[in-house]
């Protein structure tokens, strides 16, 4: 439904008329085909059947990925998916205010996240739980955000993982500025240089900030990889509501390279991201990567996708599952046996149980948290406001509880 | 100050219905679209999904994709193109998904929307309504619970209004759409689907003028002034105060720019005490403006300083703490007590 090079508008009068609510069968089929293939320029190293495809350009970037490394990527994805499903369930049980599912996007996130070096910086949007995991952020730290007891408390510098950003597109300019800083400080130019990666969705590409980020990055040769996870939908709006061109092709207009990778192929995402980061490290950036993937669950737990998308589409994408294809490949090549898969599953279950335990016991923050760290310098007015409010609260305690 | 002209609204005679605020807004949009084919609705997810709050539910189905536009995901784009459409003769009603996302569009609002009429000495009219779900109390993540209305009230050229009940939701929206001025329409999102607030909406009634405040409850101990979601808090506080032998005036401001403070002055002259209530931070806010104007007009009637019960002067906290941040019945009554003790 979202590869505009193949998505053709039916001529008026051709076939039964479409309405907003009901596309014609032709539209459905055209849409599904587009969604399935991702276009002729799709980079893919591991296809949905789990077969390894040769890529002269990108194979060198994953030459070190032996069976053990692949098992590692598999385990990453299984753990992250399990944590995502557990968090989704905890939202349903009232333990989290909201959850933003990553189901289906594990390969895009683990592939790109594992391509990063410790010295790199990642700027996420709000769905990048897999990248957070790859950057060593404790998954439990993410839960506070969605339980609404915290805005995100990890050590951003140590993990090279910026706070989540909810305002669509904002972080793209912030990342570009950060990358400009890397460049200005001379950290670009050799293979050990630094790079920045920024994550955003297909919907975000319509925002002015994203356009401006592309302009700035191009003008200053900023070492930034723009990583667009095209999961086909921006809440209810399909990609063709944002663009007439495949998104990766936009890069050309800004004067840098754009590439489309199968976002459900962890090897492909790893290879393409490593390549793009290397381009940036060497001073040949920026680069736009469009990871062509699919959001398998609702936009968030408050969303109702049955109102706007076809279940057929979902069914087709199930066959392209990012985890299943690695599993098939490992099984076929003898890279892993059943015991390995069972162990990973057991570990994922333990991980989920820990998360659940943590979440259920997470304390609410104290009221003084409202006033803390609003400013870097002392604020006598705010201090007075805090004192006044705390003394108001203590009045209730004296009166025998609130 | 000359009273702003009120555009007349023709209403299709339909039946009186018991509606929530959300449903009343939906019906108001529908009636406005039926009455004037230049009225179009635009925003993110307003079509098939019916908006994330379902306020535009069913409109695209009935009016088509060219009158209910699922726009690309860009607020500057939504408002900037709405300005162009308005110049062309349309009456766009823009939905901003959550108030915290209006800022990418702030440039278009403040640089173009607010100034075009003035700049062209009235040759260009920009009859745009920007609907903004606002306020806290829904347990949301960042950017989903803010109260930025003062920023817009501070911007000359814009009208800013806020409704607190289904009847006003219906009529104020219709009047705002009929108005030739740009109107920022702040909707109390946490009350959208409140069954307790359901009220009969009569589409053939004659509405209150748009830019007027309204006395909801008469009393003589002190005056409470609020708008949007805080109106209900004040009404509940007044009910509770009655048990303690106090009778409170409750005024729903309804219009934030222009402010209609006549009823407030009248009330304060009787009660001598004023407490203003709103969820936004207090510093440099609507509440501050009211305090300044009331002390100017009612100086000799005041028995106590005007007190403000507002959100704190901090960013909106993680929502596990919003019960502390948001003015509640206890904080309002505490302020009334302080005013009385002066
Ligand atoms: C500036 C802004 N406008 C609106 C929203 C509300 N909103 C949250 S997510 C979303 C859709 C984003 O779609 P996309 O960029 O494709 O990312 P995805 O969620 O699909 O990963 C919208 C409209 C927002 N967060 N920020």
From TrEMBL, chain A:
Region Disordered: start-end pairs: 1-25
A biological-process GO annotation: branched-chain amino acid catabolic process
CDD domains for the chain: TPP_E1_PDC_ADC_BCADC
Positions with biased composition (Low complexity): 10-25
GO molecular function annotations of the record: magnesium ion binding; oxidoreductase activity, acting on the aldehyde or oxo group of donors, disulfide as acceptor
Cofactor: thiamine diphosphate
Entry keywords, A to Z: Oxidoreductase, Pyruvate, Thiamine pyrophosphate
Pfam families found in the cross-reference section: E1_dh
InterPro entries, alphabetized: Alpha-ketoacid_DH_E1_comp, DH_E1, PdhA/BkdA, THDP-binding
Protein name (database record): Pyruvate dehydrogenase E1 component alpha subunit
Source organism per UniProt: Prauserella marina
TrEMBL record, chain B:
Source superkingdom: Bacteria
Matches recorded under InterPro entries: THDP-binding, Transketo_C/PFOR_II, Transketolase-like_Pyr-bd, Transketolase_C
Organism: Prauserella marina
Highest classification ranks of the organism: Bacteria, Bacillati, Actinomycetota, Actinomycetes, Pseudonocardiales
Cofactor: thiamine diphosphate
Keywords of this entry: Oxidoreductase, Pyruvate, Thiamine pyrophosphate
GO MF annotation, one: oxidoreductase activity
Name of this chain's protein: Pyruvate dehydrogenase E1 component beta subunit
């Amino acid at each position: 439904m979202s590869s505009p090079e193949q998505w053709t508008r039916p001529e008026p009068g051709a076939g039964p008329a479409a309405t907003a609510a009901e596309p014609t069968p032709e539209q459905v089929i055209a849409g599904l085909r587009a969604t399935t293939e991702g276009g002729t320029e799709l980079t893919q190293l591991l296809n949905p059947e789990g077969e390894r495809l040769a890529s002269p350009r990108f194979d060198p970037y994953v030459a070190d990925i032996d069976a053990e490394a692949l098992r590692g990527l598999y385990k990453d994805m299984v753990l992250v998916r399990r944590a995502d499903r557990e968090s989704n369930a905890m939202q349903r049980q009232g333990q989290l205010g909201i959850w933003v599912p990553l189901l289906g996007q594990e390969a895009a996130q683990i592939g790109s996240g594992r391509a990063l070096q410790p010295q790199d910086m990642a700027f996420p949007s709000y769905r990048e739980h897999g990248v957070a995991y790859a950057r060593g952020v404790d998954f439990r730290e993410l839960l506070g955000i969605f339980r609404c007891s915290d805005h995100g408390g990890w050590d951003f510098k140590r993990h090279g993982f910026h706070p989540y950003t909810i305002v669509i597109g904002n972080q793209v300019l912030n990342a570009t500025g950060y990358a400009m800083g890397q460049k200005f400080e001379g950290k670009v130019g050799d293979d050990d240089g630094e790079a920045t990666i920024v994550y955003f969705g297909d919907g975000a590409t319509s925002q002015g900030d994203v356009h401006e980020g592309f302009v700035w990055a191009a003008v200053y040769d900023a070492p930034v990889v723009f990583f667009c996870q095209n999961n086909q939908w921006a809440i209810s709006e399909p990609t063709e509501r944002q663009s007439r061109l495949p998104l990766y092709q936009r890069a050309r207009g800004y004067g840098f390279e754009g590439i489309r990778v199968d976002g459900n192929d962890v090897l492909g995402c790893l290879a393409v991201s490593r390549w793009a980061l290397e381009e940036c490290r060497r001073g040949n950036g920026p680069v736009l990567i469009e990871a062509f993937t699919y959001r398998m669950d609702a936009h968030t737990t408050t969303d109702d996708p049955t109102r706007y998308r076809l279940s057929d589409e979902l069914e087709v994408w199930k066959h392209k599952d990012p985890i299943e294809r690695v599993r098939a490949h490992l099984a076929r090549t003898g890279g892993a046996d059943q015991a390995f898969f069972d162990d990973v599953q057991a570990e994922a279950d333990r991980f989920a149980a820990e998360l659940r335990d943590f979440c259920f016991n997470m304390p609410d923050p104290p009221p003084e948290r409202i006033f803390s760290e609003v400013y870097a310098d002392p604020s006598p007015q705010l201090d007075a406001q805090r004192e006044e409010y705390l003394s108001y609260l203590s009045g209730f305690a004296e009166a025998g509880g609130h | 100050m000359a009273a702003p002209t009120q555009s007349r609204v023709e209403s299709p005679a339909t039946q009186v219905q018991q509606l929530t605020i959300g449903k009343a807004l939906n019906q108001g949009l529908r009636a406005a679209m039926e009455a004037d084919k230049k009225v179009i609705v635009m925003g993110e997810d307003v079509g098939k999904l019916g908006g994330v709050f379902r306020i535009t539910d069913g409109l695209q189905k009935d009016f088509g994709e060219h009158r209910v536009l699922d726009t690309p995901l860009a607020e500057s784009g939504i408002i900037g193109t709405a300005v162009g459409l308005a110049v062309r003769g349309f009456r766009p009603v823009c939905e901003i998904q959550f108030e915290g996302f209006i800022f990418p569009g702030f440039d278009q609002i403040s640089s173009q929307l607010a100034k075009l009429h003035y700049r062209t000495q009235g040759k260009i009219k920009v009859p745009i309504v920007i609907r903004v779900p606002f306020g806290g109390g829904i347990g949301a993540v960042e950017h989903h619970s803010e109260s930025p209305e003062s920023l817009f009230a501070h911007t000359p050229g814009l009208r800013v209004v806020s409704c607190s009940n289904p009847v006003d939701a219906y009529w104020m929206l219709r009047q705002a759409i009929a108005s030739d001025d740009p109107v920022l329409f702040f909707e109390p999102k946490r009350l959208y689907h409140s069954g307790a607030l359901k009220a009969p909406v009569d589409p053939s009634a004659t509405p209150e003028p748009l830019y007027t405040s309204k006395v909801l409850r008469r009393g003589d101990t002190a005056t409470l002034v609020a708008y949007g979601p805080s109106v209900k808090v004040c009404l509940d506080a007044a009910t509770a105060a009655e048990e303690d032998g106090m009778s409170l005036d409750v005024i729903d401001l309804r219009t934030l720019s222009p402010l209609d403070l006549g009823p407030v002055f009248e009330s304060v002259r009787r009660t001598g005490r004023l407490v203003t209530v709103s969820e936004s931070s207090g510093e440099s806010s609507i509440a501050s403006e009211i305090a300044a104007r009331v002390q100017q007009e009612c100086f000799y009637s005041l028995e106590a300083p005007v007190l403000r019960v507002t959100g704190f002067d901090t960013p909106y906290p993680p929502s596990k703490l919003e019960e502390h941040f948001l003015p509640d019945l206890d904080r309002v009554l505490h302020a009334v007590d302080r005013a009385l003790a002066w």
